[in-house]
């Protein structure tokens, strides 16, 4: 983590209602450059709703999401124009979905999946794009000779790594991850975790990672927020929250893990 | 000798919400000082809270009340109220912790795991790995294992990887949780030498040592945690 104290992202009093039903409520936090924030909680606790609202995919009922843009300083992501928001989402931000198929285009090659994001920010030189795509395949440990293959010919773990390459090629500063290791078998998970941890460190990425896997949260995140019923019921230093949980629900969550 | 850490009037209780919200008081009124160049043994019988106290010093456990002040970055930081960012920075640059458990991502080679704290401090990768190699050699981890994940190692080998990782950076404060448990005589001697070297360079050390011989060999004093147990003076 860098010593930069200026928040990259500031979420204030965010609430998302679905009619009368609470998606998430009164959530506030700051995120600094290079900082990894884990959001844990059971299914239906509001983790994914919160992630969608922060990442400009679903306007919240109430509250403010501010982002420190490279050019214009701090901006409210729901107050800027649609065009500015689109640009932000495909350059400075990245979104890694649980199901790689949601984040990839399955009917174009691996190389095109990576190159597409570069073209979206104005890169037009075919040779450069292809070289960058090949380089990123290497970084996520996929053989460069697979550049022209369709993602559908890849294993689940490879698809997830390809999705990560597609997201990181534009050098984003903030990455949203929704259960990035979910649905992968444990040997593949370990490889992905190691890869993610290295990339986060080397690229100084700020990350918000939603997971129900406390081991993943422990290994990747600096800070943790525990959600229940749409609210953040406990937050703090990751190992403090997991090893000395204060809230009844966090204690239940931690004590429910099977020991090796 | 300068003051590096002081604990003032600290209390700790655990409330177990999942078990009828029973509250278990552990400590009250704890006062503790640690100076550079000393090695203080935390003592008390098994279950008396030595590890709990050490975890509180590392801010792994919270305190119910009181303050724990750590001399970090030229000033005093109260880790019972500090932000997560400040605590992580304190752990990175000021306080090392050798725990009994190795918690690492599978697949990462031993050499990387040992070198990591030094690289995080800004040391060049090659220099950090060179120092990691020296420590692993001193601790008799065979070179053929250095590129493997320590998760496949024996308990004693994992313990020595933990020690190498804990001693690679010259932290001003070090916490050692049974660093010589499960080690043979030769490796135990190496760890004692590492502790002595740390003391000589001015580190302030607090440790839990399971045997008297180790304690007598390296410690300059002791601190009996049972004297601050709740009800100890009734």
TrEMBL record, chain A:
Gene: phnK
Gene3D superfamilies the UniProt entry points to: P-loop containing nucleotide triphosphate hydrolases (3.40.50.300)
Keywords: ATP-binding, Lyase, Nucleotide-binding
Domain ABC transporter per the UniProt entry, residue ranges: 9-254
Name of this protein: Phosphonate C-P lyase system protein PhnK
GO molecular function: ATP binding; ATP hydrolysis activity; lyase activity
NCBIfam families the UniProt entry points to: CP_lyasePhnK (TIGR02323)
Organism superkingdom: Bacteria
Biological processes, Gene Ontology terms: organic phosphonate catabolic process
Organismal lineage: Bacteria, Pseudomonadati, Pseudomonadota, Alphaproteobacteria, Rhodospirillales
Database matches in Pfam families: ABC_tran
């Amino acid at each position: 983590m860098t010593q930069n104290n200026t928040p990259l992202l500031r979420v204030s009093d965010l609430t998302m209602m679905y009619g009368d039903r609470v998606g998430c409520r009164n959530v506030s936090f700051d995120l600094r450059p290079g900082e990894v924030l884990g959001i844990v909680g059971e299914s239906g606790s509001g983790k994914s709703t919160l992630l969608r609202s922060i990442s400009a995919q679903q306007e919240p009922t109430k509250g403010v999401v501010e982002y420190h843009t490279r050019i214009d300083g701090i901006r409210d992501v729901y107050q800027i124009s649609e065009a500015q928001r689109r640009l932000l989402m495909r350059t400075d931000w990245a979104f890694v979905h649980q199901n790689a198929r949601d984040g990839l285009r399955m009917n174009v090659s691996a190389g095109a999946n990576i190159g597409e994001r570069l073209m979206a920010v104005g890169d037009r030189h075919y040779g450069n794009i292809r070289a960058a795509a090949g380089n990123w395949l290497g970084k996520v440990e996929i053989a460069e000779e697979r550049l022209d293959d369709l993602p559908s010919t890849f294993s689940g773990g490879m698809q997830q790594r390809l999705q990560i390459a597609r997201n990181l090629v534009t050098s984003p500063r903030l990455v949203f991850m929704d259960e990035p290791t979910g649905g992968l078998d444990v040997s593949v998970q370990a490889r992905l975790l190691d890869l993610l941890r290295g990339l986060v460190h080397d690229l100084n990425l700020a990350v918000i990672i939603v997971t129900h896997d406390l081991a993943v949260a422990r290994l990747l995140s600096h800070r943790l927020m525990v959600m229940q019923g749409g609210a953040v019921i406990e937050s703090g230093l990751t190992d403090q929250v997991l090893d000395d949980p204060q809230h009844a629900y966090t204690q239940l969550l931690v004590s429910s893990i099977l020991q090796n | 000798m300068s003051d590096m850490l002081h604990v003032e009037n600290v209390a700790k209780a655990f409330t177990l919400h999942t078990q009828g919200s029973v509250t278990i008081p552990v400590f009250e009124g704890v006062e503790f000082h640690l100076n550079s160049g000393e090695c203080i043994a935390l003592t008390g019988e098994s279950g008396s809270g030595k590890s709990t106290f050490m975890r509180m010093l590392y801010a792994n456990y919270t305190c119910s009340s009181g303050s724990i002040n750590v001399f970090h970055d030229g000033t005093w930081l109260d880790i019972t109220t500090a932000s997560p960012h400040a605590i992580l920075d304190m752990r990175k640059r000021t306080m090392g912790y050798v725990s009994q458990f190795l918690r690492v991502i599978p697949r990462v080679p031993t050499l990387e795991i040992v070198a990591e704290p030094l690289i995080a401090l800004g040391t060049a990768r090659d220099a950090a790995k060179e120092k990691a190699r020296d420590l692993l050699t001193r601790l008799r981890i065979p070179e053929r294992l250095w590129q493997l994940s320590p998760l496949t190692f024996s308990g004693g080998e994992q313990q020595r990887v933990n020690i190498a990782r804990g001693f690679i950076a010259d932290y001003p404060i070090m916490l050692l949780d049974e660093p010589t448990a499960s080690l043979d005589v030769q490796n135990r001697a190496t760890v004692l030498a590492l502790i002595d070297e740390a003391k000589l360079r001015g580190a302030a050390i607090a440790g839990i040592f399971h045997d008297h011989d180790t304690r007598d060999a390296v410690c300059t004093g002791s601190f009996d945690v049972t004297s601050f147990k709740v009800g100890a003076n009734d």
